[in-house]
Design goal:
Length: about 475
Amino acid sequence: MAGSLGEGHAQAGEGFVRGSGKGRFQGEPDPEAARFSRSVHFDKRLAKHDLEGSRAHATMLVQAGVLTRREAVAIRRGLDRLEREISSGKFRWKDSLEDVHMNLEAALTARVPAGAKLHTGRSRNDQVATDLRLWMREQVGGDILSIAALQKALVKLAEKNREVILPGYTHLQRAQPVLLAHHLLAYVEMLERDKGRLEDAVKRADVMPLGSGALAGSTLKLNREVTRKLLRFGKVSTNSMDAVADRDFLVEYLAAVALAGVHLSRLAEDLILFSSTEFGFVRFGERFTTGSSLMPQKKNPDMAELVRGKSGRLTGHLMALLTVLKGLPLTYNRDLQEDKECVFDAADTVRACWGVMAGAVTSLEVDVGACAYAASAPELLATDVADGLVEAGWAFRQAHQVVGAAVRRAEERGTRIDRLTREDWEGLAKGSGVVVEKVLGGSSALARVRKAMVARSGVVGAPSFVGVVRELRAWAKKLR
Ligand code: ARG
């Protein structure tokens, strides 16, 4: 009978390993080669998307006159059943069937004979490219939520400590006073850009490869608009060769994730430093620290350290995929199978990092006294003194010199600049004494630095009390 495939194919057994049934091949592949090339243990993660693609493809094949309506219904039901089996853990994955695509097709065909027609006009090459794009779209949706959860944790901590002043650092040397909330919101900004990059990657990935076949489309009349709409892609690909060879979208995902990892590592590092006895600004909740097997007194910030360390892995995955793609001739090459493990591991790793960081940040306790003490160091206001001199008519370069000389004099005397007398200042620059008093004088060191934070209110983006309140409000609204 025309179109009959014979029994052997309907069983779709081990012979499938060679991609197109036994046809071209006589025997089984070398066991080591089979083990080496199989991917089902990791690409089964694409099952849901593979099934989604297959359902759409089946619907389209009715229009193309390849499947009857009845066959398409049977196929779709069969695919639904596979999905249920997979999610309930009942599906039996067969290593001998190499990858997710072969496993699902074989299982379908074993139950629904028309399944043998499903691969018409389709190749695993356009199939896997489609699956990965669907996967990425869903993954990024969840990523955005994870990032938002971390942002919320940071905003909450900032909100709770919105009056806390601490030294800001450049070169890891005390520079100028800032608000802890401002410091934390710096990370909220970074995380927002991370979201934007992921969203951008998804936008560019919104192109459907399905219908590109192995590399050259099909001689059958495939209406790709039908599958595009069903799979909710913005466009269909316009070059079949590019469509099956392209993994740019995964590179973009990995790049966004690598940078997200770098941001996480910086946050981790700040918190590790700040939680050390040397800084003493914050304490991690016990549940996010570990002890030492040897030193009884230790409480180590291991979660933050691991987050910092895992950023290395994320960067590595980006490099791995770029290297896989470099110099690869068109179109599909099996090298491309190497995309999945790095992408999946990166996705899981960064997701775990966002999650554990959100928990660790929520667990933080701020030592307000330690922050206030550190923030009250008078050198932090050296720039404010220079600014004061500028307001009184000095050129900034001169003002800078005067204050620099004062710092040096204080150092020579083993004291601090706020202990220099008005005469000391007058000796350095006539008329400077009064100006300096305005900045460095005042009731207490803390009152002085608080005044300095108020003085920053006029500049957008500066760490003033009003500025931070405004930012906190804006973020709370945005993240709601
Ligand atoms: N497992 C393969 C991959 O991930 C699927 C595509 C295989 N295509 C092929 N022509 N061998 O790349």
